[in-house]
Amino acid sequence: MRILSSAEQKIRVLPENLINKIAAGEVIDRPASVVKELVENSIDAGADRITVIIKGGGKSLIQVIDNGAGMDEENAIMSFQRHATSKITSYQDMERITTLGFRGEALASIASISRVEMKTVATGEIAGTSLLIEGGVIQKIDKTGGNPGTSIAVKNIFYNTPARRKFLRADSTEYRYILNVLNRFTLAYPEIGFTLINEGNQVYDLKPTFSEERVVDVLGSRVQGNLIAVQDDTALAKITGFVGGFDIMRKSRNDQYLFLNRRYIVDRTINYAISAAFGDTIPKGLYPLYVIFLEIDPERVDVNVHPTKTEVKFADQQSLFSVVRGAVKRALTRDEVIPEMSSQRPSFEDMRARFRSSLPDELHHFSPDQMQMNFDKSTSHPVQPSAPMPSQPGQELPPDESQYQAAAPQRSQPQTSAVVWQLHNKYILSQIKSGLVVIDQHVAHERILYEKAKKSIEQNAAPSQQLLFPQTIELTPEDFEYLVEILPFLQKIGFVIKSFGGRTVVMEGVPAGLKIGSENKILLDIIDEYKTKQSSEIDVRERVAKSFACRSAIMAGEKLTTEAMNSLIDQLFATENPYFCPHGRPVMITISIDELDKRFDRK
Ligand code: ADP
Ligand code: MG
User: Fold this and answer.
1) Given the CA of residue 150, which atom of ligand 1 is nearest to it?
2) Is 599 found in the same domain as 487?
3) Do 176 and 303 reside in the same domain of the chain?
4) pLDDT of 363 over the 60 cut
5) So what's the pLDDT on residue 24?
6) Mean pLDDT highest for which of 18-22, 360-364, 576-580?
7) Average pLDDT of the chain, as a whole number
8) Which residues have a Cβ under 8 Å from the Cβ of 227 and sit 6 or more positions away?
9) Which pLDDT belongs to residue 149?
10) Of the candidates 244, 242, 258, 324, the residue with the CA atom closest to the CA atom of residue 286
11) Which of 80, 158, 222, 257 could form a disulfide with 164 if both were Cys (CB 3.0 to 4.6 A apart)?
12) Same domain, yes or no, for 144 and 231?
């Protein structure tokens, strides 16, 4: 660290503009936060029509146009000053805040790091004001005409803070963040019409409506008919909204929206309360959809604990937990989604029988018979029944693959005539020369599909099977963006997916061998898996191959025929690396005869 000379150490008050730039770092970290602040202001201004225009993932343009109250010239100029707000005048006001903004920081921060063009006409006026601000400095003030309302265009965000600009991600990623932010507003304010235009194309044009219809508009038609209304009014909180049934549960938490006094929040306690209402009926790895609104006296909540205000502190956390869980549970029981809790809690198996259509059976995409048919004999290695399994006696395969490289060319496979057993519909047991091998059926299949998918992506496209009934799938704008990103690779794997206009796609074909009947589910599963994959894995191809393999492999719990098991083993040993799944989990363990002998004191 450089030591400052005493002359340099002189304490100065920072220029206003620099203060704003520093503050901007806290409030505005990416284009999506600009969108959030501008839309909040439009809502606070009482608008019932809001249009958002995006270019270059928000890096080149973010424009928000509203038909709200507008501002006169004096207020328009004031609005860009730090701590200038029309929303509170005292500390007491802050305790009872009902608007989305109140700090008076957003516009000042945004203006300090971009070029802003504002046009605003106050209600009842026909003339208004236009302002041009660059790096926080007003360059031009003009008169303008137009309808009441405000338009704010933010261009070249972070142009004067290159370090921040460097932290921005690809346009498509920044655009997804923006979609996320907008989703929250569109769900929370169904009475407001929202239009989104990206790169000149209209992404959606949501008409003002009531809540349930808006949820369907935003989350897609697949949720229609699967929403269970939640409603309760207690002294502590008013609860309204919807939870989704089993049919629309997903493998990511993406479709979970919680609003406190119509402000989007993230809260683990409430989240847990909603899951808890389902009891133990939720299949592992699935998350229920919900759009829940809480109304609580603002004085009983501290919204100031988190700078971007998505986390809050409740005065009555515990009671709130019970209230929310109770309300959701009553809704589920009323709609017979879950049975009434008795002392004997229903097991997952009971639930499975009861809700057959919706539980993980649907997730089994491959029928074992098809696997047998799809086994390509030409790629299998010659049977070498005498070669021992490459493992140390009595130990699981250690996670060091390298030592097996030498053994790989002479890898053994259990003879196809060998006896195989399925244990708990999960593991395949087979005799090998040195003893016993235990194979995890899901992980084994995952390895097979992963290598196939990678080959198809890198070398030549895999064959697809045409669907007799093409499937139309309406995706959320966010999922649609992900799909666009991975589509070229999915096509190589064998999916035939075409655009149907907007964010609706038609699936006309799937990879040969995929079990028919769950195609749209697997597409959503792959998207979910893809987006939850660590972003550190930069190679898109790798991520797509892994997501596909993981989501289309046979599951634990699926009963396999002897032929299917043999086929699986054959295909496994034809892969490059049959010992580990693409995520690094072992595919098999071996137990040697020596080890068994030792355990039975047979010496
Ligand atoms: P805050 O929202 O915390 O008050 P902002 O910096 O976001 O602070 O906005 C400053 C002020 O500018 C607001 O209090 C409001 O009076 C005015 N303002 C901002 N955007 C709009 C808009 N779209 N329509 C009308 N007034 C607006
Ligand atoms: Mg604001």
Assistant:
1) 23
2) yes
3) no
4) no
5) 67
6) 576-580
7) 80
8) 212, 215, 216, 242, 243, 244, 245
9) 97
10) 244
11) 158
12) no
| 3 state DSSP class of 590 | strand
CB of 101 closer than 6 angstroms to any ligand 1 atom:
yes
Place of tokens 């805040």: 97
CB distance 553 to 446 below 8 Å = yes
> Residue 521: CB partners within 8 Å, gap ≥ 6?
362, 363
Protein residue with its CA nearest to atom 21 in ligand 1 = 41
- CA 141–ligand 1 middle distance (angstroms): 18
For atom 27 of ligand 1, which residue has the closest CA? 41
Q: Is the pTM of this model over 0.90?
A: no
Measured by CA distance, the residue closest to atom 13 of ligand 1 is 85
Q: Which structural domain range is residue 222 located in?
A: 217-334
**Residue 110 alpha carbon, nearest atom of ligand 1:** 6
- Is 232 in the same domain as 299? yes
Tell me if 341 is assigned to some domain. no
Q: Report whether 388 contacts 358 (CB < 8 A).
A: no
Residues whose CB is less than 8 angstroms from the CB of residue 23 and which lie 6 or more positions away in sequence, other chains included: 82, 105, 108, 109, 112
Q: Is the predicted pLDDT of residue 445 greater than 90, yes or no? A: yes
- Residue 11 CB neighbour total at 10 angstroms: 4
Q: Indicate which CATH number applies to the domain containing 96.
A: 3.30.565.10
Which residues have CB less than 5 Å away from ligand 2 (the ion)? 41, 101, 106
- Identity of the highest mean pLDDT range in 375-379, 520-524, 580-584: 520-524
Per-residue pLDDT for 428 more than 90? yes
Question: Quick one: the chain helix, strand, coil %, rounded to 5?
Answer: 40, 25, 40
| 310, 454: one domain | no
